[in-house]
Amino acid sequence: MHAKVLSEILVSVISRKMYMDKYRKVFYEIEKALKNDAYGVIILVGLRKTGKTTILKQLANKYDGYYLDFKDSKDPDTDYLNIYERSEKLILLDEIGYLPSFDAYFGNLEKDIKSVGKKVVITSSSYGTLKQLSSEKLGGGRSKVFKLPPITFVEYLYFTDKIPCYEDYSAAKSEHFKDYLQLKGLLASMTLTFDENYFVNYYEMNTESNLNSSSSKTQNDLQKEDLQNLANLLAYQLADTPSYNTIIRPEIGEREPMSTS
């Protein structure tokens, strides 16, 4: 293999390793919640490809937890029921929308998990699914919900080594904001591209989640037209190259002359 190709692969592997050793801000918030005995269930919501799976795998690695992705499971019902028999104290359930009748299972999740001395973090790319679970079956203060947005400015500074940690902003500069808006220097795996495939996949995932749900209350009525309208809005907003000055300090045009009539 060509030396240059080998070098590029090596750099990519090292970069990914470095990124796995760094955490999004919500990771530390989840850690605090896991140490709070009031919560047996942690819910992490966010758009597709914002990094929910990475956070679960980082938690599994740091706390010797058990990670289960229902999207790749061949027998999701059996896999779910087996979590109570496992030795790990932290269970990380990814894409629970792919678990048939998940809303029926989760009626007793918090009580059952606590009875065997475990804690659970669950995610789904269908926001409607988790919103209903958190307010009904896992409501009443029995669960803690965290939202994971696309990478924020301070996270961008940290992951691109422009600042040493989240507590020290002293090295941040105004020109870094323009780089952030264009996500310069950030691995492709940490960027979120709102293209046609993204919205089609999101719609299909939401539809499958609805089919798996046995309750109409946990279904999210999302139409293809909704996604198309959102995509058009994003395309319009991002048509011009953004900059720090135009976003933070936009130039305001002169005031129009008053009518004399």
Tell me what you see in this structure.
- The chain is α/β, with parallel strands linked by helices and 261 residues long.
- The protein folds into 2 domains: 3-147, P-loop containing nucleotide triphosphate hydrolases (Rossmann fold); 153-248, no CATH class.
- It has helices at residues 3-20, 25-34, 52-63, 76-81, 102-105, 109-115, 127-135, 153-159, 174-181, 196-212, 224-237, 244-248; strands spanning 41-45, 66-69, 90-94, 119-124, 143-147.
- Helix 10 packs antiparallel against helix 11 (224-237).
- The longest helix has 18 residues, at 3-20.
- The protein is globular and about 50 Å long.
End-to-end C-alpha gap: 78 Å
Based on the structure given, which CATH architecture of the largest domain is correct? 3-Layer(aba) Sandwich
Overall average pLDDT? 74
Strand content: 5-15%
User: What is CATH's topology name of the largest domain?
Assistant: Rossmann fold
Write a compact overview of the structure shown.
The chain has helices at 3-20, 25-34, 52-63, 76-81, 102-105, 109-115, 127-135, 153-159, 174-181, 196-212, 224-237, 244-248; strands at 41-45, 66-69, 90-94, 119-124, 143-147. By secondary structure, it is an alpha/beta fold.
Could you list some keywords that capture this structure?
45% helix; globular; alpha/beta; 5 strands; 2 domains; Rossmann fold; single chain; five-stranded parallel β-sheet; 12 helices; 261 residues
